[in-house]
Give the backbone structure.
Amino acid sequence: PGDAFVVFAGFLAAREVISLWLAFFASLAGNVISSLILYFAGVQVLAFARRLEAGLSGPAIFKQWLAEFTSESQMEKTGLWFQRFGFWLVLVSRFLAGIRVFVVIVAGVSRMNFAIFLLSFSIGVCVWNTLLLAGGYALGENWELVLEWIRIYSVTILSVMTVAIVVYFWLRWRKSSPSGSITDDDSR
């Protein structure tokens, strides 16, 4: 929904209802403020996930997966990953609908260097919002076409990611399931 407002702001700027610079800086400020809230909430998300794992009484596999994702060793791996690739992860995530929120939270959980996070996020927002504002500005009365393109782009990205996540968990389940492992008898 936030992208729609930015595109519409481009349309309004083209009609000289608002300043293009005002639209740009307002969208930048809104995005940065919301990302800071999520970044600093990341530690709370981890604490919540650990409490959830401790109190989970459903299937053991879900408790096991949650325990693995919130373990200290996993947090160390994630932290190292964000130290190496965090700048690019945060920057590119801005262009991946549905992922951008989670990357910001994980950056906070992994305690990614705050200055690098803020710089990377701001660059990503500037590029993305410039594209959205320019689309709304250039298309004028047809600004809603940009929203349709964004919808198609978002659905495609989310579909690919959903399939990848399902395959990942299916492979994990097959690996941990006693019936999922191949025995010597099965390989003949």
In short: The mean pLDDT is 80. Residues 20-55 form the longest helix (36 residues). Helices lie at 2-14, 20-55, 60-70, 72-93, 100-109, 114-139, 144-176.
